[in-house]
Every structure is written in structure tokens, then in C-alpha cells.
Q: What sequence folds into this?
């Protein structure tokens, strides 16, 4: 028997399909299996990729060089003319560093960490598109670990959208961008683990910061790069990571603070931080009771939460106001004080030279003192 022509089965199938198309609607049925297949939809990218795409063009790599003199070198060799003639003489060496930054203004302002560019002789910026430019440090504030680098007039700069760090909640998505270990354009994902982490609890006594804690991986070279939210807005500036026990905890400077400091630095104005001249430790009612039960205790402590004065610096506003070691500060301005961080937050928002009311417990007495903050002295070196 001769095989059927190839076209015949096709004709039969077409006829069958036509017959079913007429009969099945009468029976109240549909024909999903015989319907023409829809074209395959393009694969959609996740929210992380979309968020990164908004900010990545504004993320830069920062390479720095600084010359460091070794102790004991003749100061005459510091002369720039001699360096031009002889180069780096014995006793001096060049140190290279690397970090990240983010463009926050199309005119060429790059926000980064102070420790990335502080005392750098040369700052080279590599843009996301590969262009390399020499930047000028417009200003540095070591107290908040923030700096602004100004780029020369350049076409095609992309500024990152800035978010609102006050809107954050623990559990929100957090995406870190930067160049860790020199690996350009690295993205890591995590969440906001906590808010308002005081930097003093991490061992930094010369800084005034409340940080965003995140479990998004932050490594050397990430410093100064942006931490962004799920909408692709910068919510913080990556600044440090916990090493050793507890490694994997990253911290970022909230963008609301960074925005204000950057504005001052870009204008050429010094960032002023009020200062009282106190060294404080936290005190809780429980710790005070335990202390007071010790027969060897030198002085009784108020059994209340607050900021305990451990030392009053000589010739400071605190000394002029009459504060003493052992005083417990329980209120400042209109805010109650339960920890040293509470007091520092009030001080940071105070005005230089204007009276700041403090409520202090000294022994069994409650005192109301007025202290006039002064400008924080520059750190030595």
C-alpha cells in the first residue's frame, strides 16, 4: 500500500481542528491545547538588578597616593624642589590606597569617606564607563568620616538618586556597591540589620556617628561606596566592617547626615561640631545598685539610667559649668538622657556659645546647670 502523501495528514488535522472549533463552543468548551502558542515573554530581571542599574553609573573607584616620611629624616628633604630633583629620598615612601565613591551632583561632586582621601597627594577617579580623571579634595570632616572630591568639568556624568535614611526600618533590603579588593562594580545584597548604632560602641572615640548596620558584605575597597535601597536610592555610605569575632557586620553612614556635611564641604565651609569636654560612660540603675553594694566603692552612684561623667577635661566648657566626675547627666535640653549617645546627639544639634540646659544628679541632689558648647578642637596630627 502506497504511503499517504505528506500533505494529507495536515489536511485531516486542519479539518479536524475546524470541526472542533465549531462543535466545542456549542458544548460550552474551549480549546486551549489547540490554540496558537503565545510568543515567549522576555525574561524579567529582579528588583536588585533594576535598583543597581539606577545607581551603578554614578559609582566610582578612587585610587590615592600619599607620601609618608619615616621618622628621623632631615626636614630639608621635605622641600618640593628637592623632591623634583631627586625624587623620593631615603626615609620617605609612597603609600597607595583604594576605595569607592558615588557622584551626587552632575557638576562633579563625589561623596566618599574621609579615611579614603585624607592627606592624599593624588586622587584618581575611575568612572563607571572607564574614564579616569584627577580629582581635587574639596573638603574632609574626620569627625563624621566624610569627604567630598571635586571632578574637573566633564560631560556625561550621572548622579545617583539620594533617598531618605530616616525612612529605614530593620529588615529593609540593603544593597552595597563598590570596588572591594580592586574588583570593580561589585554588588552584594543583604538587609538593614539595625539602625542608630553609635560608633563609640565599635571602639571609635574620635568620631560622632550613628550608623546603619547591614549584613550586606562590605570589604576593604567598599569604603565610600553607596548602600542603596530596593528602589535604587542611596540610603548610606559604606564606611567600615567588623573584623575578627562578629565579622560580617557592615556599617554605613546615613545619607541624611552625609548630604548635609557634603553640602558644607563643597561650599568650602568648615564643618563645626560642638564640644563639652566630657568623657562619659553609660550607667544603668542595676549597675549602680551593684556598685553601691560593694563595700570598697569610693563614692555612691545614683541608681538611675544616664550618662556618667568619668572625666572632665581641663579648660573645657564642662569645667567652666561646674561638672564633676561622678555626676550623672539625665537630661539635656528637652530630651531625657539614658546613654552617652543621647547626650552627644543633643550636643551635636546645639549652637556654639549658647546655653544648653543639663539636669545632673550629684549624690542625693538634682542640679540644673547651663553649659555653653565650644567648637570641637582639632585632633593632634
A:
Amino acid at each position: 500500500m502506497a504511503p499517504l502523501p505528506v500533505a494529507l495528514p495536515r489536511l485531516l488535522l486542519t479539518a479536524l481542528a475546524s470541526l472542533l472549533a465549531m462543535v466545542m463552543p456549542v458544548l460550552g468548551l474551549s480549546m486551549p491545547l489547540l490554540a496558537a502558542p503565545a510568543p515567549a515573554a522576555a525574561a524579567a530581571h529582579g528588583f536588585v538588578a533594576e535598583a543597581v542599574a539606577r545607581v551603578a553609573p554614578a559609582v566610582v573607584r578612587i585610587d590615592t597616593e600619599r607620601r609618608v616620611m619615616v621618622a628621623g629624616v632631615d626636614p630639608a628633604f621635605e622641600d618640593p624642589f628637592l623632591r623634583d630633583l631627586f625624587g623620593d629620598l631615603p626615609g620617605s615612601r609612597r603609600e597607595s590606597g583604594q576605595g569607592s565613591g558615588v557622584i551626587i551632583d552632575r557638576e562633579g561632586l563625589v561623596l566618599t569617606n574621609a579615611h579614603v582621601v585624607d592627606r592624599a597627594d593624588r586622587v584618581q577617579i575611575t568612572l563607571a564607563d572607564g574614564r579616569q580623571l584627577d580629582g581635587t579634595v574639596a573638603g574632609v570632616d574626620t569627625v563624621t568620616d566624610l569627604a567630598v572630591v571635586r571632578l574637573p568639568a566633564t560631560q556625561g556624568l550621572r548622579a545617583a538618586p539620594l533617598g531618605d535614611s530616616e525612612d529605614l526600618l530593620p529588615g529593609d533590603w540593603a544593597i552595597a556597591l563598590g570596588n572591594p579588593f580592586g574588583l570593580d562594580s561589585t554588588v552584594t545584597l543583604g538587609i538593614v540589620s539595625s539602625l542608630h548604632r553609635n560608633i563609640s560602641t565599635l571602639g571609635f572615640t574620635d568620631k560622632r556617628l550613628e550608623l546603619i548596620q547591614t549584613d550586606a558584605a562590605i570589604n576593604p575597597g567598599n569604603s565610600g561606596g553607596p548602600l542603596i535601597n530596593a528602589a535604587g536610592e542611596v540610603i548610606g555610605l559604606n564606611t567600615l566592617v567588623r573584623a575578627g569575632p562578629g565579622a560580617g557586620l557592615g556599617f554605613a553612614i546615613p545619607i541624611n547626615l552625609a548630604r548635609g556635611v557634603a553640602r558644607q564641604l563643597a561650599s568650602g565651609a568648615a564643618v563645626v561640631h560642638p564640644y563639652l569636654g566630657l568623657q562619659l560612660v553609660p550607667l544603668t540603675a542595676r549597675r549602680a545598685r551593684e556598685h553601691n553594694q560593694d563595700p570598697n566603692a569610693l563614692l555612691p552612684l545614683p541608681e538611675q539610667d544616664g550618662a556618667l561623667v568619668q572625666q572632665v577635661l581641663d579648660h573645657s566648657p564642662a569645667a567652666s559649668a561646674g561638672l564633676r566626675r561622678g555626676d550623672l547627666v539625665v537630661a539635656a535640653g528637652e530630651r531625657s538622657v539614658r546613654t552617652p549617645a543621647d547626650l552627644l546627639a543633643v550636643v551635636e544639634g546645639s549652637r556654639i556659645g549658647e546655653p544648653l540646659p543639663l539636669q545632673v544628679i550629684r549624690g542625693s541632689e538634682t542640679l540644673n546647670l547651663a553649659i555653653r558648647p565650644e567648637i570641637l578642637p582639632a585632633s593632634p596630627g
